[in-house]
Design brief:
globular, mainly alpha, 3 helices
């Protein structure tokens, strides 16, 4: 099942929000920042899932949301680590 750009944006927004829930902190990125974290997390999670872990592509909303959320958590942890260095 191929997802269109609107579906990816919605998944990115949801994944960013879920990642913010699982990685609590004081960072407030707003709606667009959360969506950006989710989209970047989705791309990173998808890349790692397919190329590094050598898994089949996920299909549908739920698989994409899980992978995007895991990638978004990773992105948030990296952003937090970079912020602490400053």
């Amino acid at each position: 099942m191929d997802l269109n750009i609107i579906q990816w944006i919605i998944i990115g927004l949801l994944a960013g929000a879920l990642a913010g829930f699982f990685v609590p902190g004081r960072e407030r990125y707003g709606c667009f920042g959360t969506m950006l974290v989710g989209i970047v997390g989705g791309l990173l999670g998808g890349f790692l899932w397919v190329n590094v872990l050598d898994q089949n592509e996920t299909s549908g909303w739920l698989g994409a949301l899980v992978i995007a959320t895991l990638g978004s958590i990773l992105v948030l942890l990296v952003l937090r680590a970079m912020r602490k260095r400053d």
